Structure formats: C-alpha cells, structure tokens
Amino acid sequence: MSIDITLTPAQKSLQHEARAFAHDVLTGVVPATRDIAGAEARAMATKPFYEKLIAAGFMRKSIPVEAGGECSGMIDAAVICEELYSVDASVTCTLIGSVLGLYPLLLAGSPGQIAELLPPFLAKTGAPLASFCSSEPGGSANAGSPAPGEGVRTKAVLDGGHWVINGRKQWIPTPLGWDGKGADLLTVVCRTDPDAAPEHAMSVIAVPRPTPGLVFEHAHDGMGHRAHLSTRFRLDNVRVPVGNVLGGIGGGAKVAEASFTATAALVGILGVALMRAAFAFALNFAKTERRGGIHPIIEHQAVGYALADAKTTIEAARFLSWAACKALDDQSPGAAELAYQAKIFGSEAAVKVITDLMRVVGIDSYDHELPLAGLLQDAVVLPLFDGGNMGVRRRQLHNLMKSEGYSPLTAWGGE
Ligand SMILES: Cc1cc2nc3c(=O)[nH]c(=O)nc-3n(C[C@H](O)[C@H](O)[C@H](O)COP(=O)(O)OP(=O)(O)OC[C@H]3O[C@@H](n4cnc5c(N)ncnc54)[C@H](O)[C@@H]3O)c2cc1C
Q1: What local confidence, expressed as pLDDT, does residue 1 receive?
Q2: Homologous superfamily of 130-248
Q3: Residue 198's pLDDT is what?
Q4: 386 is catalytic
Q5: Closest CA to 262 of 207, 339, 323, 186
Q6: pTM for this one?
Q7: Comma-separated ranges of CATH 1.10.540.10 domains in the chain
Q8: How many CB atoms are located within 10 Å of the residue 309 CB?
Q9: How far is the CA of 252 from the centre of ligand 1 (A)?
C-alpha cells in the first residue's frame, strides 16, 4: 500500500468546485424544506436542488472514467461526498444512494448492459435516480443466511424469457422515482435459486424504468436526513428480460459485498463531513462567545481540550477513510479491512464528536436554530445504515480475522 494520499491538482480543483456548489446551492435545502409536513412531500421539494447537482456534473463525476464518467477513483468520490454532505446530508444522500444503485452495474455489468442502462446517468440533464434494493421488512443483516433462516425473501422466477420478481423492500431511496412510475434503475437483490447454498442463491437484477408492478407502501419518517426519501415498497409480478442479471445468475452475494465494501469507505467520510461542520461551528462559537464571563470560552482549558480531542478524531477518521479509498483503488489486499474499519470508526466517531461539541456550545446547541442538533440527527444513522455496525460490519471484520491466512499486517502493507 502506498502512503501518499496527497490530493492531486485535479482533486484540489474538484474539492473547490464541490465546496462552492455546496455553499451556493445546498445551503438552500434546509430553509426550503424544513417546514414542509410529510416525509414524501419534503423529499419531493428537493428535486430542483437535485437537478442542479446533476447539471453541475456531480453524478458524472461519481461514475468511473472507464464507464464514460469523470471519476478517477474513490478519493474523488470521497472529496465530493465530504464537501456536499458537510453542507446538506439529505440531497447528498439522494446522490450517494443513486451511485450505490449503480454500483452493481458498474462493478459487474457487461459492456452491453452498461451501454443500455447507464446513459441517463451520464447526461447532465434531468434528475436521474437509481436505487440498490437490498433491505427487506423483517431485517437484512442475515441476507445470506442458510435455511432455516430466511435470508433474502424477494424471489425472482424464470418465466420464458423473463424474470418475474415478487417481494418487499424497505429503506430504499426513492424507488418509485419523482413521479411514482419507478426510478430510472433499480438493482434488486433477489433469491433466484431457493435450493442453492446462500453464496449462490442470490442474484442482482436490473429493473429499468418504467416498470409496472412497483407498489408504494410507506415513506419512512427518519430521525435525520429529513428531506431524503426512504421507502417501503412491493414488487408485484415485476417482469424484466432474462438478460438483466448483473454479475451472473447466483452472483448476487458477491456483487452486493463488492458494492457495500466501496460504500463502507465513503461512510467514514460522511462521518468526517458532519464532524467537520460541527467543529467549524463550535470553534467559532468558542472564540466569539463569553457566555457572561470575562473571556471567550475557548480560554477555558476544558473547552480547549474538548476541541483538541474532536479535531484529532476528525483527522484520524479522514485519513483512515482516505487510506481505505486508496487501497480500494489500488486493489490492495487489505482494502476490505480498511473500508470496514473506516465505516465503523468514522460513523461512531461522528455521533460521539458531535455530542461532545454540543457540550462545548451548551444548551443553545439543542435548538434547531443552531446547526448542531440537525447534524447529530443526521449522524445517528451512520452506524445504522449501509449495513449496521452491529449486525453486518463488525461481523465482516470478524469473519475476515477468522479466515485462514488472515494476517494482521496486511491492512497497512506491513508484510
Ligand atoms: C438514509 C438511509 C438510506 C438507506 N439506503 C439504503 C439503500 O440504498 N439500499 C438498501 O438496501 N438499504 C438502505 N438502507 C437500509 C439500511 O442500510 C439497512 O437496512 C441496514 O443497514 C441493515 O440493517 P441492520 O444491520 O440493522 O439489519 P437488521 O436485519 O434489521 O438487524 C437489526 C439488528 O439485529 C442484530 N443482528 C442481526 N443479525 C445479527 C448478526 N448476525 N450478528 C449480530 N447482530 C445481529 C443487530 O443488533 C442489528 O443491528 C438505508 C437506510 C437509511 C436510513
């Protein structure tokens, strides 16, 4: 593993571009949506902001150069995520959810499938949405469980030249699109062989728009990401051509694992983004507020030490996440371990650091008039989503460490 993770001039310029876009456009999302009642209506009101994100090229910049986009690697993705997410988690989550929805196509699609399904996402027009549909009512931490566990319950059965898909999914970002007719692309984890061993029983099937049979059930009313839509929905006899399997029939477990390894490194960066926003606010508060005393509160040692601890954690989380991104780009043998660690560390650090910074600011941080309460609401999901840290992520690390030939030196290239 190489240790040089200095941003290139192109990545610096991407960083400044994303920062300026976030400042100019995304600062408007919360004021435009916070007073709208209903999770669905709030999310639908973000469409103009999402369209601007697409027009500014941030979807193209998240798609690898080899597939026709402009992303040179995971560090590019990390830079974009940090800048956008630190200003608005909701609309950025809609972008990231779509990129995750594309990962099975990008990682496992054939050239023909990519040529057919990717073009709407390469254009800088409209508001294209993709969703990776894995989570199901009743839980998905054990999606690969053998019988008598249920594993993935959504089934796809061959009928002539088509797959017929039936099942329910939940916590899926905008699967019915902006108009209820379906996202531009759903990548749906299905059980395609009820008798096969778990590692060969699942497939990821591409469901393009428009698709009859997608039935809305519920808009989740989440604690954070208040203007991002997560949905429970049903697939009722959804028919797609037999050639829509991504990564081969029975290859679903591998495709899902590869997709979630890439996002793990990015969740670490999402934690950094929220911590960074909280730190900037708390530092300014500490330097300018006396709270009735003689000196700005940063002069009190307790405040200074709390800020020092927070900043140390932020830099550690960013470097671990960047190292994971670089290792994924280099296909280093320790990449998966670093990615899982970045996810666990960055996500849990965000909840703790933002809470600590709220203590620095004190009681006023509890009011949504200041940004810290909203940042904490957004941060709480980081250990829970993208594979919960309890049910999925720690188990992935545990399994890695149990595996034959695991070396504790591999992650940092120490062999
Ligand atoms: C904003 C947002 C966006 C999302 N985007 C997507 C998306 O794009 N696509 C998608 O498919 N989902 C998405 N989700 C859903 C989410 O990523 C997953 O459903 C979630 O990470 C899996 O939940 P879980 O690990 O809590 O699993 P569950 O199965 O619900 O498990 C619950 C709990 O059971 C325990 N548990 C279960 N099994 C084990 C085990 N083997 N070992 C130890 N403990 C265990 C753990 O305590 C675990 O936390 C999103 C959610 C949100 C809020």
Answers
A1: 57
A2: Butyryl-CoA Dehydrogenase, subunit A, domain 2 (2.40.110.10)
A3: 82
A4: yes
A5: 339
A6: 0.97
A7: 9-122
A8: 14
A9: 18
